Amino acid sequence: MSESNNLIISTKGLTKSYDGKPVLNSLDLKVPKNSIFGFLGPNGAGKTTTIKLILGLIQPTGGSCEVFGMDAFNNSVDIRHRTGYLAQDPRYYEHMTARETLRFTARFFFKGPKKEVESRIEETLEMAGLDDKADRPIKGFSGGERQRLGIAQAQINNPDLLILDEPAASLDPMGRRDVLGLMKKMQSETTIFYSTHILDDVQRVSDMVAILNKGNLVAQAPIEELLGSKENAVYNLVIKGDATNVSSLLLQQPWVSSVNAVSPNGYTTLTVSVSDDSKAERNILKVAMADENIVIVEYGRKKYELEDVFMKMVEG
Ligand SMILES: Nc1ncnc2c1ncn2[C@@H]1O[C@H](COP(=O)(O)OP(=O)(O)OP(=O)(O)O)[C@@H](O)[C@H]1O
Which residue minimizes the CA distance to atom 8 of ligand 1? Predict the structure, then answer.
């Protein structure tokens, strides 16, 4: 059973086709307990389809999908009791207050005496940072407050798994910061699987990342591993003087795969991609300094941004 392996979600060869046309191809996802798992992909990649399969709302065409060690489609009711879900564009009864909305949700998903329900609602409002707005109608809520209310709703019954479909997509930077902060706060209590196409958010909050492109999983790894890849490292050198000679010296090295030069204001920035990072680390400055007519004003190993990794993988 996957849950005994500390995996909350585990799919094997998971496939979904519509009218014979594959939307998801043989997906192997492994979502560890208490991770914030960023499920990343461009529009139409198949993220929402995957979420529907995990929630047991649609049946796979092939392969398997287990949640808490149970088959997602055949045990969807049991799984839903332990899972909170925030849809991409949550809708509310606008005249209701946040507290009334949570009370309404709790009627379906939270079992217990009235006093306990009310204290859970209070606790949830506080955690979502909505306690001071609890008794205002939702129609005046900002985008960020709406999303936080959606997350509050999804976790009213202390779920073991929270599935959030694009929780921060429509928000301004402050709204996004608040939603990401809330996700981080909940991590010790639950496992969060969320879809997004915002790379920056994934980099800020996730510990595991999977990248989906056109229905295919192109990467799945802890975020540091994805960003700290030792292959294909990139170095930056900022040079004062004519950098032409340095560029060609670098290009002659077998461990240099490309050199890109940009000269905006008398300085030249060389972006040097290397195929062997340990050789580059030892030699790159020595090679550049062989040209005595230039001055190296900056030198550094470029830290990969998720955007670089994503673009490389998605563009194949
Ligand atoms: N019921 C359906 N019938 C036919 N095709 C479908 C159906 N549902 C989804 N698709 C197709 O599957 C593909 C993946 O859609 P999905 O909604 O899973 O992508 P997504 O990654 O969530 O994209 P977005 O970020 O735009 O929401 C799309 O090409 C979509 O048109």
Answer: 49
Confidence of residue 194 (pLDDT cuts 50, 70, 90): very high
Last residue of a domain, one of 196, 227, 258: 227
Count of H helices and E strands in the chain?
A: 11, 15
DSSP 25: E
Residue 247: CATH number of its domain: 3.30.70.260
Within 8 A by CB and 6+ apart from 242, the residues are: 293, 294
Average pLDDT, stretch 60-72? 96
Among 49, 53, 194, 213, name the best residue to mutate to test ligand 1's pocket (greatest count of ligand atoms within 8 A of Cβ).
49
* 45 Cβ below 6 A of ligand 1: yes
- Which ipTM value was assigned to this complex? 0.95
Which residue out of 14, 16, 23, 39 has the highest number of ligand 1 atoms within 8 Å of its CB and is therefore the one to mutate? 23
**CATH number of the domain to which 52 belongs:** 3.40.50.300
Last residue of a domain, one of 227, 253, 286: 227
Instruction: Report whether residue 49 contacts ligand 1, using a CB cutoff of 6 Å.
Output: yes
Report residue 96: phi and psi, to 5°: -80, 155
Q: Which domain holds residue 292?
A: 234-314
**pLDDT tens-digit profile of 163-192?**
999 998 888 888 888 889 989 989 999 999
Task: Give the predicted TM-score (pTM) of the model.
Answer: 0.79
